[in-house]
Amino acid sequence: MVPPTDEATLLGELNNPRQRDAAFCKLVSNYGPVLHRHLLRMLHSGADTDDVLQNTLVKAYRNLSKFRGDSKLSTWLYRIATNEALSWLRSNQRRNARFSSEEPGTIAGRHLEADAYFDGDAAQAHLQRALATLPTKQSAVFSFRYFDDLPYREISEITGTSEGALKA
């Protein structure tokens, strides 16, 4: 992730029309990998993750002028990614509901085992299957806190949920 002072520099470059494209390339290289890991934990499929990450980055680029700076740039990007993933999951659940009677944890486990980036570690597989049984938002909060090591304050901004509710 980008340190706060570098984040301010990056934001300045993103707001300068002559530097915007080069700065956006920096944004993608700095934040792309962490957003990809976050989305993979939510979606359990490399192909879906790539699609949603692309949607996230396009949406971020188109809405750079709307970023007010009330939060960190990373928080804003996580929020866009999380909302895009939740929308993707809702639309896929509606489409696939009539075709599959499998439990979500079973489907997630199958996707993980087939994913080229998944190392197959049994404990990790068990944890991912357990996370897949949680509601999507709870799984995302767990991931933010324990995989991404985000403070509750940032998770609250990303999810729009109070810190107290997150801790509970």
Q: Could you please describe the fold and organization of this structure?
A:
- The protein is mainly α.
- 74% of the residues lie in helices and 0% in strands.
- It is built from 9 helices and no strands.
- It has helices spanning 4-14, 20-43, 46-62, 73-96, 104-114, 122-133, 136-147, 152-159, 163-167.
- The chain is globular, with a radius of gyration of 17 Å.
- The mean pLDDT is 82.
Q: Summary?
A:
The chain is an all-alpha fold.
List low-confidence stretches.
Answer: none
**How many separate helices?**
9
Rg: 17 Å
Taken from the alpha-carbon principal axes, the silhouette is globular
- How many angstroms separate the termini? 28 Å
β-strand percent reads: under 5%
Order of helix and strand elements from N to C terminus:
HHHHHHHHH
- Helix/sheet category: mainly alpha
Provide the helix percentage. Answer: over 70%
Oligomeric state as shown: single chain
The pLDDT mean sits at 82
Biggest sheet record: none
Topology:
Blueprint: H1 4-14, H2 20-43, H3 46-62, H4 73-96, H5 104-114, H6 122-133, H7 136-147, H8 152-159, H9 163-167
Helix pairs in contact: 1-2, 2-3, 2-4, 3-4, 4-8, 5-6
Task: Give the tags.
mainly alpha, 9 helices
